[in-house]
């Protein structure tokens, strides 16, 4: 299959695309048109040009219409082990249609942006699907970002509506999400962006609605309006190249990048990668621990699995609450067969020993997956031997927000594994390892990881910033997409990712630009200059290390250190003051030295 995908990409991807419903078929001679070479003109990537489809229809209606309406689409496990819920594909369709009808009723239409700032409730994928159904462009912002970071994204994409909830409890911490949204909307208004609608879901498990601040006219309770709308909503057929979503990610400058994905190619790619890299079978119960605020939650909580008619588990809580056995408790409770997580979670659970794992049977597990950062061989072994009882293959999937889906990944059982290697490229992907002059290296080598040809799931631009798109990804090595990662290839052709080679730090699989942290630090009145680098961290992969120069006359103290850290938290990420029970987003600051310039 790989050879065919390289020799005849148009034929290979067309056959797969035909498994989906297209209101209008793409032009057969325009399956893919591309230019990845800046020296030959503007960068262009287009797939299935001329085709008209809808990803929500394919992910939901198509499953109902093919007789799987009663199959579970989503299981939901709340923060407390006693809280759970589920939705069949038919029920999911009804809920998506009601929300889509509500959004239409308040004037949201094709091409309009909608910001979603929700925790892992079923309403989060429902909101994504409702936007897709009516051709609106969703931009999910991870509900761990600060009000400033949220405002920055709102100002950039100017949404017609924001969808949020009152609050969420993760572990023992209560996070008042609506208050954070309120602050960000005030901030956005100061920057000229007024959002007319703030649809707020009442998360029963978290807070009572009387405690929530309210701005009548703008704020609307989801439960007061959405259930009143009809459960039928016509699909908006969109062009294959119409935008599906915007997702902001950190780059090497302070401003986050709005990665834009379009509809047709992303649909085909997220579904196909899911199916093969996890060896998906219709009876599987699939759990990806990522939040929908990241690309992993877009492609492998929402779209990829639902496009395959899978049963997906959504977990609201924290992996160490009420104790570090929670993940395995959930695996047994739902009979999870495919478990996809991040190395940082594995390393943090490793510290608690095997006792919490051994308490649970985990018999149902069949395939394991890892994503977000290089998995060190020790963590890989523990995942394989302890969690998977040495019988479940591990798919170590290398990919990025920009790639939309897996790029280098094992296919379970298809070839021997090597702990810590993401192995070989997925169908249609042609990786190239180049030296600093952009010369492609052959055989056993080490260098910069690039991709030679486009693939259907590739992002199409950075929203509103085509120059930055070309400069960041296509100018470093003409003719190639540059990933920003280092990689080596061994004598057997296996790929070993070595981490970022640009100014991006990967803390627990979360991308943080050094410039974002630096600009937050220098906004502190006592900080003159700041330089931020990564340090190795046992659990988080990398930690953040800041060198700060204080303004003249200010001396360093522990209180000042705390105040600097708080400044960063409030501008970039809510980090551990809010998420202390969630090891995944814990961040780590150390100050190596301070120096007062005379
Ligand atoms: O450095 C690579 C690392 O995560 C970066 C992409 O981050 P983001 O866009 O936030 O997407 C994360 C989820 C896909 C990459 O440039 N990365 C991701 N997966 C792996 C990885 N590094 C090594 N091995 C992986 N499996």
From TrEMBL:
<dbReference type="InterPro" id="IPR045851">
    <property type="entry name" value="AMP-bd_C_sf"/>
</dbReference>
<dbReference type="InterPro" id="IPR025110">
    <property type="entry name" value="AMP-bd_C"/>
</dbReference>
<dbReference type="InterPro" id="IPR020845">
    <property type="entry name" value="AMP-binding_CS"/>
</dbReference>
<dbReference type="Pfam" id="PF16177">
    <property type="entry name" value="ACAS_N"/>
</dbReference>
<dbReference type="GO" id="GO:0106290">
    <property type="term" value="F:trans-cinnamate-CoA ligase activity"/>
</dbReference>
<dbReference type="InterPro" id="IPR032387">
    <property type="entry name" value="ACAS_N"/>
</dbReference>
<dbReference type="GO" id="GO:0003987">
    <property type="term" value="F:acetate-CoA ligase activity"/>
</dbReference>
<dbReference type="GO" id="GO:0016208">
    <property type="term" value="F:AMP binding"/>
</dbReference>
<dbReference type="GO" id="GO:0009698">
    <property type="term" value="P:phenylpropanoid metabolic process"/>
</dbReference>
<keyword id="KW-0460">Magnesium</keyword>
<dbReference type="Pfam" id="PF13193">
    <property type="entry name" value="AMP-binding_C"/>
</dbReference>
<dbReference type="GO" id="GO:0016207">
    <property type="term" value="F:4-coumarate-CoA ligase activity"/>
</dbReference>
<feature type="domain" description="AMP-dependent synthetase/ligase">
    <location>
        <begin position="67"/>
        <end position="454"/>
    </location>
</feature>
<dbReference type="GO" id="GO:0019427">
    <property type="term" value="P:acetyl-CoA biosynthetic process from acetate"/>
</dbReference>
<dbReference type="GO" id="GO:0005524">
    <property type="term" value="F:ATP binding"/>
</dbReference>
<feature type="domain" description="AMP-binding enzyme C-terminal">
    <location>
        <begin position="516"/>
        <end position="572"/>
    </location>
</feature>
<protein>
    <recommendedName>
        <fullName>Acetyl-coenzyme A synthetase</fullName>
        <ecNumber>6.2.1.1</ecNumber>
    </recommendedName>
</protein>
<keyword id="KW-0547">Nucleotide-binding</keyword>
<dbReference type="InterPro" id="IPR011904">
    <property type="entry name" value="Ac_CoA_lig"/>
</dbReference>
<dbReference type="InterPro" id="IPR000873">
    <property type="entry name" value="AMP-dep_synth/lig_dom"/>
</dbReference>
<dbReference type="Pfam" id="PF00501">
    <property type="entry name" value="AMP-binding"/>
</dbReference>
<keyword id="KW-0067">ATP-binding</keyword>
<comment type="similarity">
    <text>Belongs to the ATP-dependent AMP-binding enzyme family.</text>
</comment>
<feature type="domain" description="Acetyl-coenzyme A synthetase N-terminal">
    <location>
        <begin position="1"/>
        <end position="59"/>
    </location>
</feature>
<keyword id="KW-0436">Ligase</keyword>
<dbReference type="InterPro" id="IPR042099">
    <property type="entry name" value="ANL_N_sf"/>
</dbReference>
